[in-house]
Design goal:
By secondary structure, the chain is α+β, with helices and mostly antiparallel strands. Helix content is about 15%, strand content about 30%. The protein is globular and about 40 Å long.
Length: about 140
């Protein structure tokens, strides 16, 4: 965590690794952008502190950029969510949305993960830029 936590009005950015993370007409962020996968997202959902900071740590082409409002991330709530969501800048410009539940193959934890991902996509995220074709 940085010396000073990010202000709630701050904006962070998520690189869209899959084309399916966007729906079209009108462009919106799909919940799939916020599924936390075991073995890949062990520290949380990756974000950057600026729109193009993904260039510092991603090598493969991406499909676009998602802007995420920090205060709206912190506002995401569910009765089954044990710890509030927050942002951890672990290696600037890289950070993570932390405490997002892993998406399980089945069962109630999967449903919780889907609900949280959906809330993040609807309440906290907006399409910032879509790349066609994908690039870095």
């Amino acid at each position: 965590m940085p010396d000073q936590p990010l202000a709630c009005e701050s904006i962070i950015y998520r690189a869209a690794l899959e084309e399916t993370w966007f729906s079209s007409d009108p462009p919106e962020v799909d919940a799939a952008a916020f599924y936390r996968r075991k073995g890949m997202d062990n520290d949380g959902i990756s974000i950057g502190v600026s729109p193009y900071s993904y260039r510092s740590y991603l090598k493969n082409p991406i499909f676009g950029i998602i802007s995420v409002h920090v205060g709206h991330v912190r506002d995401v709530n569910d009765p089954e969510l044990l710890t509030a969501l927050d942002i951890d800048i672990d290696d600037a410009p890289h950070g993570n949305i932390i405490n997002v539940p892993f998406k399980e193959r089945k069962g109630p934890r999967r449903r919780l993960a889907e609900r949280i991902a959906s809330l993040l996509a609807r309440q906290a995220a907006r399409v910032y830029e879509v790349f066609d074709p994908p690039h870095n």
